[in-house]
Amino acid sequence: MNKTLFLFLGLLSLVAGKTYAQSFEDRLHFEISEGAGLKMKSVTPLDFSFKAQVDIIPRMYVFATAEANKSFYKKDDVKTYFSGESLGGGLAVKLLDKKKTSHALDVRLKVLSSIGHADWKRTTYDASLAWYFENYRFTPVVECGYRFIDSRTDALSNYSSFYVTLGIRY
Q1: How does pLDDT run across 37-52, given as a tens digit for each residue?
Q2: Alpha helices, DSSP H only, in the chain?
Q3: In the chain, count of helices (H) and strands (E)?
Q4: If I label 109, which of 66, 102, 141, 143 is the partner at 20 to 30 A Cα–Cα?
């Protein structure tokens, strides 16, 4: 695993081709957001998320994510919820050139895994599009995507659905 990651980052640095003149502080961004998925299999997930992002080349960045999860469950007349925390990270590619437009549209791929004593032990896989303003320090973020949750809890089956997230990027 470590050899693969090292090889990937080495090849990525060759693709960049030129130096990246911005300081680390200019390449570092934070994002706080609240998201909800569509109700599927009697489950409606809600997530509060914090992301720390670092641009590795002008068109690509990596990010680490921490999420607090609440999943509302309703089947027959039983209403309850499952809570937990997840940690993970991902890779994103910027589709729009910031020299031509102030809008940003990113493709994000993310993997999270539940930690601690979560009610719903799970591994989460996300693929999404995120829109925000590139040239502003504080900007709203809208993220729409598809989420697959691989459940490790016997009482709940796997979950897959579309989701929407609203947040603020710094």
Answers
A1: 888 878 888 999 999 9
A2: 2-16, 24-27
A3: 2, 8
A4: 102
Nearest CA among 83, 47, 43 for reference residue 65: 47
H/E run at residue 29: strand 28-37
CA dist 135 and 94 (Å) reads: 14
Contact 83, 69 (CB under 8 A): yes
Q: Is 152 helix (H, G, I), strand (E, B) or coil?
A: coil
The phi, psi pair for 15, rounded to 5°, reads -70, -35
**Which are the contacts of 67, defined by CB distance < 8 A and separation ≥ 6?**
47, 48, 49, 50, 85, 86, 87, 88, 112
Phi, psi of 36 (to 5 degrees): -145, 145
pTM over 0.90: no
> Residue 156 in 3-state DSSP?
coil
The amino acid at 27 = R
